[in-house]
Amino acid sequence: MEPDVSIETGSMIRIAVLPVGGSIPHPRLRSYVEMLGRHTRIDLSSISSFYSEHQKSPFTHQPWETGSLRFKFMLGGAPPSAWEDFQSCRKILAVIGLCHCPASPDLDLVADQFATACKAYTSALAKRCFAFFPTDSQLEEGDNKRENILLFPPSDQKTQEFHMLTMMQDLAASLLMEFEKWVLRAESAGTILKTPLDSQSSLGSEEFIKAKKRRLARAQKTIGDYCMLAGSPIDANAHYSTAIELARLTGDIFWHAGAMEGSVCALLLEEGDNKRENILLFPPSDQKTQEFHMLTMMQDLAASLLMEFEKWVLRAESAGTILKTPLDSQSSLGSEEFIKAKKRRLARAQKTIGDYCMLAGSPIDANAHYSTAIELARLTGDIFWHAGAMEGSVCALLVDRMDHKDPLLEEEVKYRYYNVIQLYRRSYLQDNAQRRELAKEVVDLLMSAADGGKSLIDASDRLILYVEIARLFGTLGYQRKAAFFSRQVAQLYLQQDNACAAMSAMQVLTMTSNAYHVQSRRNSQKMCPSPQFPVKVTKAFVSRDFSLMMHFRLHSFPLHPSQTDIIKRNPQKKEWWTGSAPSGPFIYTPFSKGAISDCNKQELTWIVGEPVQVFVELANPCSFDLMVESIYLSVHSGNFDAFPVSVSLPPNTSKVILLSGIPTKVGAVSIPGCIVHCFGVITEHLFRDVDNLLLGASQGLVLSDPFRCCGSTKPKNMSAPNISVVPPLPLLVSHVVGGNGSTILYEGEIRDIWTSLTNAGTVPIEQAHIALSGKNQDSVISIAHDVLLSSLPLKPGGEVTIPVTVKAWQLSLTDSEFDASKSSSGSARRISKEGSSPLLVIYYAGPWTSPDESNGSGNSVPPGRRLVVPLNVCVLQGLRFVRARLLSMEFPARVSEALPKQIYGENGTTEELKSVNQNDSLVKIDPYRGSWGLRLLELELSNPTDVVFEVNVSMQLDSQQSEHGMANFSNEDIDFGYRKTRIDRDYSARVLIPMEHFKLPVLDASFFSKDAQVNNLLGNKFSSTAERNAKAELNASINNLISKIKVKWHSGRNSSGELNIKDATQAALQASIMDILLPDPLTFGFRLGENGTASENIVSPEESSISDNPPGQPGSRNVARAKGSVLAHEMTRMEVIIRNNTKERIKMSLNVSCRDVAGENCIEGNKATVLWAGTLSDISLEAPPLQDITHSFALYFLVPGDYTLLAAAVINDATDVLRARAKSDSSDEPIFCRGSPFHVHVVGTA
Amino acid sequence: MANTACFIIVSRNDIPIYEAEVGSAMKKEEAAQQHQFILHAALDIVEDLAWTTSAMFLKAVDKFNDLVVSVYVTAGHILTTILLNPLYLPGSRITSSHFDTKVRALARKYL
Description:
The complex is a heterodimer of chains A (about 1250) and B (about 110).
Chain A: E1 12-20, H1 26-37, E2 41-43, E3 68-75, E4 92-100, H2 107-119, E5 126-132, H3 136-142, E6 149-152, H4 157-189, H5 196-200, H6 205-229, H7 233-250, H8 253-277, H9 287-319, H10 326-330, H11 335-359, H12 363-380, H13 383-400, H14 407-453, H15 459-476, H16 479-495, H17 499-516, H18 521-526, H19 535-549, E7 551-556, E8 565-567, E9 603-607, E10 612-620, E11 626-634, E12 640-643, E13 645-649, E14 653-663, E15 667-669, E16 673-678, E17 681-686, H20 687-699, H21 706-709, E18 722-726, E19 732-736, E20 743-746, E21 750-759, E22 767-774, E23 780-783, H22 785-790, E24 799-807, E25 816-818, E26 830-832, E27 838-845, E28 864-870, E29 873-876, E30 880-891, E31 893-894, H23 910-920, E32 931-942, E33 949-956, E34 973-975, E35 981-983, E36 988-994, H24 1005-1017, H25 1023-1044, E37 1045-1051, E38 1055-1058, H26 1062-1069, H27 1073-1077, E39 1082-1088, H28 1101-1107, E40 1125-1127, E41 1131-1140, E42 1146-1156, E43 1170-1173, E44 1179-1183, E45 1188-1197, E46 1201-1212, H29 1216-1221, E47 1231-1234, E48 1238-1243
Parallel strand pairs in A: 1-3, 1-4, 4-5, 5-6, 9-18, 20-29, 31-48, 40-48
Antiparallel strand pairs in A: 2-3, 7-10, 8-28, 10-14, 11-13, 11-16, 12-14, 15-18, 16-17, 19-21, 21-24, 22-27, 23-24, 25-26, 27-28, 30-32, 32-36, 33-34, 33-35, 33-37, 37-38, 39-41, 41-45, 42-44, 42-46, 43-45, 46-47, 46-48
Helix pairs in contact in A: 4-6, 6-7, 6-8, 7-8, 9-11, 11-12, 11-13, 12-13, 13-14, 14-15, 15-16, 16-17, 17-19, 24-25, 25-26
Chain B: E1 4-10, E2 16-23, H1 29-52, E3 57-64, E4 67-72, H2 97-110
Antiparallel strand pairs in B: 1-2, 3-4
């Protein structure tokens, strides 16, 4: 599941867009992509010149006139989806390369690169590489061979765009042809289509048969998909229906669902095409071109009308139609009448055909038909149509002889018109005479019945009588009489005091409204100088009733949407927006319901020329549907244009509708109510009236609250706020460059988001400021404030594009959700929740004085505004950090002439350090150095995504050490030369980070300053605070350490970011941070003595690996022994070097011991195998601060083999610092310090 | 009951161009409206009758309860008479106060 899925996705062709060749400058790439992005829809009609039908197209119903192909550009490509087979729109069907020629001189290379890049997209049916700005030489050589590279010669923007359009049309055509081929092949051969769901079920023999059956359905579904992509929804629908049927039969539920989904998309697309058919686009151009375009369009319209007329006439002549007038409908068709009607049909048809001939501009044809019609109508006594045909013939005569003025013609016309009028009159009389025959007696009867009605005592009897009378009058066509009696009925209903009767009354009244042509008083004053008959009465009566039928109340005024908030300006402050309402932590929540607040005492500000909206609640307590033809806000102040809407309200419901309008002039606006056109009646409904009603309801005076009984929520008293209209303000609108869909980033990915801001108002923007709000604000690394400021003042229509660098935040459990669909691995993927993106809040304002405010009320500063732009970032779970562990390694060093190098040795020069770094690259163990207490941070990472990640660890060592006169590193990252760790999808990998580099060179009291005080000086009183301090100190040093470790990742071509390892590492390091950061107070080392018997030659480290031969197999060189090996039966001088890492003198008592491989002490005891000279135990020494002292002794090994030398010391009078380092609690405890073991390899014969 | 009358001149399409309520009838609004409704309803019958006879005065064409409707049709199918007024725009409302007084004076004579 992707974030941007919609129903139409099924019809979009995915095209991977890849930059190829040398790196394209960012703005260039953006402009290329933008140019490409305009062509997401290619009309089929525009590609016909590129299209050639090789075979019979399988898309038989392709709408070549109206259809289109839709493209979806996948910038940077996309990994193949496991669901490609299931939904063909998921396939990448084409690849477009973008190449910036100045950056890539060798086009062959580009072609190769592009071909390689295309290989990843096996489903791509078309590949194009667009090369922009080729040099002349490239142009010359480019033409001959590389068909996939299309050069865009440097030219102006328009030409380039046109070129691009042509290229895209060509691409569309070739894709269409490929689709055809694919469908033809699929229809003939058939393919096996699978989804990841299938692979899970094993294919038993039964399953296999089922699969074979299912194949057909799936193939049909896929063909349907391709039809959709080819822009032919009708074909698609046909295939989908087949697929649905087949899938249902074979029980292939998933594909059944898929086919149905596809058919929905097809339906939608079909509808959309039909809709679009009638819309003709007039591209912006100069007046003349537009006029010419209009002329062409009108000619086209005329031609199609003419053709339609032809069709109509042909159809009418062959089939014949029954034509009627309102006169006919009143006379019932008896059998005799029926025969007459059949005869009359011909005449009427001829007359109508004549009419169409007239419309088609052929008066001679018309005259011929009219003559036939006249003759026939005369024969059948169809006087009315006779008159009509004659009238038509006069018209035809006039049109025919339009040019010459002829007195004879005039006479003829006069005569004919006289006839026509006579006939019309006759037909009316005839008709009326017929009606009168029946009606006269009925009317008399009805009148006397009505007369009798007044003697009826029971009102309901009279009601029934009047209902009948009204009904009969209605049947007779006496509309006004019917209305009158209906009104009587309504009055009788109203006299009964119950709701049902009232509703019936309303219903009856709505029937009368037509007869009474009811209009509101307001309109009658304005437009209609002579109101229709009993207007005053009915208006008063009917509108009162209508106000019972419908109830209106003000629901709410939506505050300014966050895009157009108005902010008061404070002219005193530089940051003028501060302190102005509304502020607070929740400026904007994208899912709040339209930011409705109770507006009881609210001042609203509207702006001239900007549309505003008001929510009004409508209730229909009647038991019938209410069709409101139009409803709009009624504003008497004359500075507001209201837009009408039409609503239909089912019985007993209420509805909140949005009414809008545009303020036109500065001043106050009051909205007392709405004007409603309903059942032909125009009434003004005042909100006040309903307030009274509601008040009555709450006091029990009125039976019920109409809103509550219509299911509306709790009653809400909403008083109209004071609304003032202010002069125009600037209006900033934003859009994200490259589409408004959300930017999809992996966790930790760093990406620039370009937002373009346009001033859509009529006032220039002179001040602007960008702030951040919302969640995950710290994910915004930088905002180009200077770009915005340099663009000021932003004129109306001006645009500025601002880059914002975002580092995708880490998904946490609370602000993420599981992706609805399962990823290919089957485990759910995490994806950020909507609304967790940070927001840019842009405050902007126009000039301090408004331009047209010349009346001198200059004390009011025009307000500023606020635009909230959500940075639509969708964070996908990226590399997952599984755990961090601290590993320690112990590997004794060998005794040699030199000491193992200290990393931050006192005399360590930069050169030495460099070499150290080289040695350190790849953690390999130098046997002469050893690595005692080496600590490695192991990070275990797993890759749950479907792309490949490459991880690179680097360390940022700052020059903090230089304070101590030690290492002097530049602040750049140290690359340890680790090879990049590649983590494939669904795999995990481990990365090791040596922690040695973080050891401080000096054991200093400063680190413990607080610690020490805590433990020793201060009593238990302050210990808790102090402990907290200590903890904070510790955390700070961990954080400092962690911040130096950078785990960077790359994925694909464009994605790169940094892994957030902070929390996990912190936990891993918590326990042993002191061991990592602080050196031991004393470090011990052994080396062979100056005049010892060890090799005289100094062996360079390079040779050491060569000479590191196994014992007993001495190399051929004259140095018989390997470096550092010691001969048995020889006195070997040795030195132990003790370094004091503290800033104080340390007195100690040193002990040296030697152990054999079995761990037995071989110096003392009766089985001692090593003889010695000098002192080895309880040696009292005193080491000056930060200096070495040496103690010499000699050993005589009796037996060759491996021995281990160990030095240890007990520190006398340990300081607090030392105690703290040793984590000792009591002050009496001796502080014991042990060095790392050294190996001695003794060779020789026993 | 008899001393009440409503006098209305109606132009084509049911548009009233003059109306006068005369007499000493109860001034209840409901009743006044009732008169107008009755006159309006009578137009159906008038329309029928007007075509059948060449007479301009149609006597009592309709009645409701005790109220009787009589109609005078002009040649131009304006119901009841109008005085000649060269500034009169056909179909517009008659606003002359002189006309109004005359009508009321006449009415008093007969009621």
